[in-house]
Amino acid sequence: MGPRLSSGLLALAVAIGGASTYANAAPLTPLPLPAPAPAAPITPVPASLPGTPDPGAPNEIRITGLGGSSAPWNIVLLLTFLTLIPSLLICMTPFARLLVVFHFLRQALGLQTTPSNQTLIGLTLVLTFFIMEPVGNRIYEQSFVPLQAGKITGLEAISRGSEPMRAFMAHYVREKDAALFLEIAKEPRPRNVGDLSMRVLLPAYIVSELKAGFQIGAVLFLPFLVVDMVVASITTSVGMMQLPPVVISTPLKLLLFLMVDGWHLLISSLMRSFN
Questions:
Q1: Residue 211 near residue 241 (C-beta atoms within 8 A)
Q2: 93-146, pLDDT tens digit by residue?
Q3: Does residue 200 contact residue 85 with C-beta atoms inside 8 Å?
Q4: Among 2, 83, 124, 203, which one has the highest count of C-beta atoms within 10 angstroms of its own C-beta?
Q5: How far apart are CA 51 and CA 101, in angstroms?
Q6: Nearest-CA neighbor of 156 among 146, 166, 165?
Q7: pLDDT averaged over the chain?
Q8: What does the pLDDT read at residue 4?
Q9: What is the arithmetic mean of pLDDT over 59-70?
Q10: How many helices (H) and strands (E) does the chain have?
């Protein structure tokens, strides 16, 4: 136990000596802090820099339409026009007249499904676009180009675009039909057909087109009707009572139509009627 006791007494003596030394030591003085560096001058930032959005403005996305107008109104006008395309195609173009004539031709030839309805409608659409191309170019130049440039509004573009259509329909409308709808609408009689309102001009034009189509179809029916009558009289006179005349007349009518180049004559006559 001697070495342990001596080592313990030595540690106690060292601890007492260190405590007395710490008590007699001089108080610590704080070290001086370095002087703060001068702050850099703060330059004011402008409210809005060129090319940056105003921070005070609301965060929103603006989409401008044609002519600087709002996009929702352009969408409304576009959707309205798209829904009215079938009605405009039938009521304001030669589509009705051409389609009636082609159906009359198919009935006169005795063919029920040839050409098919899709073929006749496609042919009518192509011819309608061919006839209406000058009118469409004028509408594009007078209404769509100024609207796209922002010179006119959407309503002004519709008003300008209706003028070429009005001139086209007024050229082919019958005065009798126009007078009928003027009387029904109780509107004053204008000086000429070009001054008619669209309310009167549209129904008068479609009635005139239907009449013209039926007139052409009736004339187209006559030569084929003669072939049917001749074949029916011959088969009856020779006693072929059980043989339908249409079995013989249909090939003869097709042969006659091809010999005279019927499609060329019909299309050329229809196109020249809209010259």
A1: no
A2: 889 899 999 999 888 888 878 888 889 999 999 999 998 888 888 888 888 888
A3: no
A4: 124
A5: 63
A6: 146
A7: 75
A8: 53
A9: 50
A10: 10, 0
- The 10 Å CB-count burial string (b at 16+, else e) for 126-161 is ebbeebbeebeebbeebbbebbeeeebbbeebeebb
Question: 243: alpha, beta or left, given left = phi > 0 and alpha = psi -120 to 50?
Answer: beta
- What is the residue type of 88? L
The total number of residues shown for the chain amounts to: 275
pLDDT at 37 over 60: no
Greatest mean pLDDT among 70-84, 183-197, 248-262: 248-262
Report field, pTM of the whole predicted structure over 0.70: no
Compute the distance between CA of residue 199 and CA of residue 65 in angstroms, rounded to an integer: 30
Least reliable range by pLDDT among 17-26, 167-176, 242-251:
17-26
**Residue 54: exposure state from Cβ atoms within 10 A (0-12, 13-18, ≥19):** exposed
Give the H/E segment covering residue 215. Answer: helix 198-237
Q: What is the pLDDT of residues 70-101, one digit of tens each?
A: 567 667 777 877 787 777 777 888 898 999 99
Give the orientation angle of helix 71-91 with respect to helix 95-109, to 10 degrees. Answer: 40
* CA atoms within a 13 Å half-sphere pointing along the CA-CB vector of 229: 6
Q: Positive or negative, the Cα torsion across 163, 164, 166, 170? A: positive
43 CB-contact burial (10 Å; exposed 0-12 / middle 13-18 / buried 19+)? exposed
